[in-house]
Amino acid sequence: MPPLLPVVTTWAEWGRMFTNTAQWTAAVREICHRHHLPVQHVEAGYPGTNAVFVVDDAYVVKIYAPFCPEDFDLERELYALLGPNPHLPVPQLIAQGVLEDQIRWPYIIIDFKPGFPIREVRDRIPRYNLLRIAAELGEMVRELHRVPVTALTSLPNTRASWQQFVRQRQVEVADAALWEGILPEPVVAEIPEFLASALAGGEEAPLALLNGDLTEDHILLQQHNGKWRISALIDFGDALVGARDYEWIALWFSGLDREYDELMAFMAAYDPRLKLDDAFFTRAMAFTFLHEFGTDILAFTLKVLGQPQIASIQELQALLWEG
After folding, report:
1. 3-class DSSP state of 275
2. Residue 48 clears pLDDT 90, i.e. is over it
C-alpha cells in the first residue's frame, strides 16, 4: 500500500499541509473504514494546531501533529469523560487510534456538533440573547469545574504541579524581552512584585478542571425559534488543572468579547457568591500575565485599543478589566 501522508518533521511543513483537504482525504477515508464508518464527503474543519476534518456532517476526524502526542492523550481522555455528561454539550468520543503510515498519526473520531463559532454570529444576536448565552455558558463551566480531577491521567492534577506551573510562568513573564513592543519597560519591571502581591494568599484555592481556552472559536451556537443557544463546546487541547481564575482570561478577552454585562451574567450563573470586586480584577490581571497565551492576548487587545500609553500595571488593569 503506498504511503497515505508525507513525513512531517517541522512546523513549517505541517503549516503547509494540515488544512489541505485533498492531501488528507485518503488518510481520513482509511481511518473511517477501520471503524466501519461510511464516507461520502470530507471537508476541512476550523483550523487550529491539529488537522480536523468533518465527514458527511456526521462526525469529525482529528489527526494530531507529530509534535503533539500529549494533545492526543489529553483529548481522548477528556472527550470520553465529558461527552456523556448531559449538562455539557461536548462531542462524544466515537473511536481513537493510531494510523501507522511512514510515521505514526494518532487520531480521534468524535460526533459532529453543528453550529457557528460565536465570532461569526455575535453581531446579529440581540443583547438580551447574548446575556442568556453568557449565563448558559456560566452554568456549563460550573459543571466542568465540578469534574473530579484526581482520576485524570493525562494532566498533572496536584497542588504541587499547579504551583510549579505558576512559579515557572512568573519567571517567564518577568523577562523584558517577552514584552518588547507590547508593554513599556517600566511596566514590565513591575510584573514580579505585582504577581507576588496578587497571588499572595491564594495558594490554597480549590483546583478544577479548566478548559483553558474558552475563545470565540470554541463556543458554537445554533438558532432555535429565533433565539441563539450554545450547541457545543469544542477543543480541549489546552485543558489543565488549576485555580479557576485562570479560566477567566480567554473567556473575557475572546469568548465574551470583553463585554462587562456578559461577564456579570456569566458569573451570576457560575457562582452568584463570586464578587466582581478589586480582588477579583487584581487576580484576573495577574492571570492575564500568567496565561499560556497572555503575551498574544495583551498584544492583540492593546492593538485593537489603539496602542494606548500605559504607565503602570494599575492603569493596564483598569483599561483591560475595569473599563
Report:
1. coil
2. no
